[in-house]
Fold DUF1611 domain-containing protein.
Amino acid sequence: MKMEQPYLLFLGDAADPLAAKVAQGIKTWRPEFCVGQFRLENCNADTGLKDLSIKQAVDLGAKTLVIGVANRGGIISEAWIDVLLEALDAGMDIASGLHNKLVDVPALVAAAEKNDCSLFDVRYPTQQYPVASGVKRSGKRLLTVGTDCSVGKMYTSLAIEKEMQSQGIDADFRATGQTGILITGDGVSVDCVVADFIAGAIEEISPDNSPEHWDVIEGQGSLFHASFAGVTMGLIHGSQPDALVLCHEPTREHMRGLPTYSLPDIQTCIDANLTAARLTNPDVCCIGISVNTSAMDEQEAMSYMDMLETELNLPVVDPFRQGVSRLVEQLKGE
Amino acid sequence: MKMEQPYLLFLGDAADPLAAKVAQGIKTWRPEFCVGQFRLENCNADTGLKDLSIKQAVDLGAKTLVIGVANRGGIISEAWIDVLLEALDAGMDIASGLHNKLVDVPALVAAAEKNDCSLFDVRYPTQQYPVASGVKRSGKRLLTVGTDCSVGKMYTSLAIEKEMQSQGIDADFRATGQTGILITGDGVSVDCVVADFIAGAIEEISPDNSPEHWDVIEGQGSLFHASFAGVTMGLIHGSQPDALVLCHEPTREHMRGLPTYSLPDIQTCIDANLTAARLTNPDVCCIGISVNTSAMDEQEAMSYMDMLETELNLPVVDPFRQGVSRLVEQLKGE
């Protein structure tokens, strides 16, 4: 499931900017992949890219139309179909991370076949993954873990990849969720893999590499999330991480979707993740904390992070406010 | 996927008794489900049940032919097809836990449709499971966990169910693997569920129950198995166990399938399982150890178990040699 670049970002009839956050993520992290955006008349989002027709996009070399918008229920809207058909007829592939599948829409399947184009439903793995071998791989690996779901693991991982590359470190982000896959064009939506193959899928997307190379692997869920910790556990073991970065959102009142579950203590969470990770890499260490302070004002955020840094004796950063150079600094000499 | 009883156990052309261990397990744990066995001429296994023709089995009320034999590769042998077709034509359902599916054999599908019979591939879940809610359920739950895969978790669970029932305790074994499902006719093959739904599937097969009722849930894998720990983690969280029994095979030299991984220390393994289980049931405790000493002689086994019991200060039993009454004893007053 390797998507071809460059992309035309489809924003459709996004109700608000948040509905187009996938498109915004692609534009933020892979601007070089994007030739422009396509918006329907009632679209309330804007990535700032040039608005293009299908024909203009193809003329600029676009290979894949990426559905960068989500609506309630994750369905493929009737209102989008004409544009999607036009894109297929113009020779573009289509990629989607929605719950409902492109391949379940007969008109799209027929048009894709006719034009010899591909439909990528990146949420659903199409390949068979092996059972994890647990055999140590060459190269280095950093994994983001979290106190909870949706606390900024993907954002942090992409920021670390970018910072590493800007410092001349050979690094690749490895996507484990649909948004990450759409951004980079590759990866595995690990929570949709059959349970026996969770760790094996991660071994597959982060293969042997040169000794100085870093894979920056996007974490999922949390060891402390009662619904999804199995995914997290397998992801940790398959990653064989040398370094962990713990991601946290400090204003959350309970675990996401679980009103009776409170968030874990941060040191307890670090220790649990290190214990799990040591099974496949005894040398793992936690190099710092990434905090999503978007719900705090600047002063509140800074004093919270100062407090945490003193308490944990580890670098604490908000990647959005300050970048992640202090985290990458920790890896020098690893 | 509720299979109908009683069963005709199909031993086919089993190469040796071990190849028919599924049939033997059904006969051991659910003799009341079995009307007899069916063997081909070159069968080298025998459950001790009466040999029946398909017609005789149907006359005795058999509703399901259960494939109780495994061959290398888990395939459905050509040599079996005539008998399977005869069973379908006689109105029986067929159930299999093999890797290859009954529903992928066109002749069987056609015969099942013609006769309005069902084909159960119990290894492959056919229903959608929900994301786990983590909400505490009524009733009590015991979960078997292990230092490794294939150390006797199913056997121990079935022995505990039987012992509880013989003591007048209301108890049900809950199957989480294909053999357990074939034995009881119900359950979920949890390692074949999509990763997001591991814990949710276990919540579903062990629903609210009366306050004094025990579900005895079959564990899978091990938190210390680098290939499968994700399954184990989700299974623990979904079970919300009140009591854990740790299963162990003391002669194993490395983790199953992982030559470079040694077995965990038993106390470390107990502690890790309790820590994981406390997330969804803070009151969980470990009530004892079940040791599979089949590779030891009687004296060696007894002195090993004595040693372990002194070390851990918990009851240590081999269910096959001694039964599990000392484990069930621990639950009185829970």
In short: The radius of gyration of chain B is 20 Å.
